[in-house]
Amino acid sequence: MVFLRAAFFRVDLRAPLRRVVLRVAFLRVFLRRVAFFGAAALDAAFFLRLLAAIICNYPFSGRLVDQGGCLSYTVLADFMQVLAYGDARIDVRIDGSAAHTVVLLAGFPLAREIWDGVAERLAATHRVLRPDLRGMGASSVANGPYLMESLAGDVAAVLDATGVERATIVGHSAGGYVALAFARMYAERVDALALVCSRLAADSPDLARSREELALTLERERSIDAVVDAYLPRLFSRTTVQRHPELIERVRAIAKCTDPRGAAALLRGMAMRNGSEDIAADLAMPVLVIAGCEDAIVPLDEARSVAAAFPNGALAIAERSGHLPMLEELDVTASALADWLASGSPA
């Protein structure tokens, strides 16, 4: 009986095992060929993109850009992602191809879309970079809090990735805090500085406490609604509220896309920031301050004081704007920046 069973297994199982072995061998050969032709296709795509960049004069970077769970890709045109400190991925929009670079930074709780109109106009004569701050817009949410110095380091990483040594840095509101931190840390890389509805002073204890409370609410509710409700009513002038409700809805839509985790981390970073009064007198580069006459967050008198604190400070006022003059009075804001840039103030 033992002999018969052994014979049975030798006869009946030998053929199925042979088929399994052959199938495994075939699969290995197939996968090797797929890998070979896949790599060849990626190489071909790279050189086709490079050829297109040469022929069409597109901006091109040969850097491989980290995409998290996606395959790395080669930057060719208008968008790129830069891997920054703490594994944050900073998403950047690039417009224009002129020699001089302008960096536009959005305020809280917004994203680069608030600069669309200004970027379109400046891109005719400048290269315009619009990175979303970490945790905002299309950039990734990294662990917080987001200190202004960390965000300034992200801007430096963007300049490095795009091959820019020096630039004009323009910051709106919280973006202005980042611009000031950048000027403190990388003064040699700043041609000129523009602050739009921003301030030099740190948060008061009461304001810092309210930011922490709001951050806790965002984390508890896992929703950005509390920030939208707290900030949106204070962003606009009376003229905008009465005549341009569509603008308010546009800003609401941008803010609603903000990840509450990123918003909480940035709220804490703003609350922890140091004031910049100590460096203003030492910043010799040209500085433009743009103020909204009806700004409920940074009053006009404070904006005047900010401009006066810099040796080469200048002030432009948007008469019918609140905290968002780049949207409420696009022509005024874009012209103020363009004229200032054209005047030769930036190096």
Molecular structure report:
Residues 1-13 and 34-77 have low confidence and may be disordered. Strands 3-4-6-5-7-8-9-10 form an eight-stranded mixed sheet, with helices on both faces. It has a two-stranded antiparallel sheet with strand order 1-2. It is globular. The longest helix has 55 residues, at 2-56. The protein has 13 helices and ten strands. Helix 2 (116-122) runs parallel beside helix 13 (330-342), helix 3 packs across helix 4 and helix 5 (205-221) runs antiparallel to helix 9 (260-272). Helix 11 links the parallel strand 9 and strand 10. The chain has two domains: 1-57; 78-342, 3-Layer(aba) Sandwich (Rossmann fold), CATH 3.40.50. It has 347 residues and is of the alpha/beta class.
Q: Which features would summarize this protein structure in a list?
A:
347 residues; alpha/beta; Rossmann fold; eight-stranded mixed β-sheet; two-stranded antiparallel sheet; disordered N terminus
Write the SSE topology.
Blueprint: H1 2-56, E1 64-67, E2 70-74, E3 79-83, E4 89-95, E5 101-105, H2 116-122, E6 127-131, H3 148-161, E7 167-172, H4 174-185, E8 190-196, H5 205-221, H6 225-231, H7 238-243, H8 245-256, H9 260-272, H10 277-280, E9 287-292, H11 300-308, E10 313-318, H12 325-328, H13 330-342
Helix pairs in contact: 2-13, 3-4, 5-9
Low-confidence stretches: 1-13, 34-77
Structural class: alpha/beta
Q: What is the overall number of helices?
A: 13
What would you give as the CATH superfamily of the largest domain?
A: Alpha/Beta hydrolase fold, catalytic domain
SSE pattern: HEEEEEHEHEHEHHHHHHEHEHH
Question: Level of helix content?
Answer: 40-55%
How many domain modules?
2
Round the mean pLDDT to the nearest integer and report it.
84
Which percent band covers the strand fraction?
15-25%
Largest sheet: 8 strands, mixed
Radius of gyration: 27 Å
